[in-house]
Amino acid sequence: MKIGILGASGQVGTALKENLTTNGYTPLLGSRKATADYQTNADVAKAADLLILAVPGQTVLDLAKQLKADLKGKILVDVTNAITSDFSGPKTFAGKSQTQLLQETLPDTAVVKGFNQTGSANMIKPEGSVQFFAGDDQAAVKQVTDLAKQMGFAPQALSLQDSPLLDSLGFLWIKAAIQLNKQPNLKFYLK
Ligand SMILES: NC(=O)c1ccc[n+]([C@@H]2O[C@H](COP(=O)([O-])OP(=O)(O)OC[C@H]3O[C@@H](n4cnc5c(N)ncnc54)[C@H](OP(=O)(O)O)[C@@H]3O)[C@@H](O)[C@H]2O)c1
Description:
Blueprint: E1 3-6, H1 11-22, E2 28-31, E3 39-40, H2 41-47, E4 50-53, H3 60-66, E5 75-78, H4 98-105, E6 110-113, H5 120-124, E7 130-135, H6 138-151, E8 154-158, H7 163-179
Parallel strand pairs: 1-2, 1-4, 2-3, 4-5, 5-6, 7-8
Antiparallel strand pairs: 6-7
The structure holds NADP nicotinamide-adenine-dinucleotide phosphate.
GO molecular function: cupric reductase (NADH) activity; ferric-chelate reductase (NADPH) activity
GO biological process, one term: copper ion import
Keywords: Oxidoreductase
C-alpha cells in the first residue's frame, strides 16, 4: 500500500512521516509546490492508495475539490481540525462535521476521520494512546485502524456520523493540553 501525505511539510505531516518511516513505509510527500523534497499534492494524490490530509482546516474543501479526480477510489484520512475563528469550538455546518462535507464532496473516495485527537509529538510516539477513526467504508476504516495499530496507537473504529464527536474530542485535546501545559504530549487512553 502506497501512502501519501498532503501538506507533508507541516507539524503533522512531518510527525506522521517519521512514524511511518520507522514502521517501514516510504510515504510520498505532497506540498503546494514541488521542490527537491516534495512533490505536488496532485502528483501524490495520483500515485498513492491511502492519502493523509494534513493541511489547515479552512483549506480542506478547496483542496478536495482540486484533487477530486485524483482521489477517486482512494482512502483519504482527514487529520484536520476545523475550529471557529473565536476559538470557541469545532466548526459545524448545519450540524454536520467538515469531514461529512468532505465525504459529500468526494463521493468516490473513502473518507476516514482520525489522528486529529492527539498532538504531533504523539504521532511520532503514540505509546498505545487511543485514536478513534470514523468512516462509512468499513474496509477503508479497517485498513486505517490496522495501519494506526502498526504505528503504535490503540485504534477504535466508528462510523462517519460519529465524526462530529471526533472534532469535539480533538478540540478537547487542544483545550486540555493548554490547561495542563502538556502540549504536545498529552495522551488519551481507554482503560
Ligand atoms: N499540530 C498538531 O499537533 C495537530 C494535531 C492534530 C490535528 N492537527 C490538524 O492537522 C492539520 C495540519 O496541522 P499542522 O500543525 O501540521 O499545520 P501546518 O503546519 O500549519 O500546515 C500543514 C501544511 O499545510 C500546507 N498548507 C498551508 N496552507 C495551505 C493551503 N491554503 N492549501 C493547501 N495546503 C496548505 C503547508 O504545506 P506547503 O506550504 O508545503 O503546501 C503546511 O506545511 C490542521 O488541520 C490541524 O488542525 C494538528
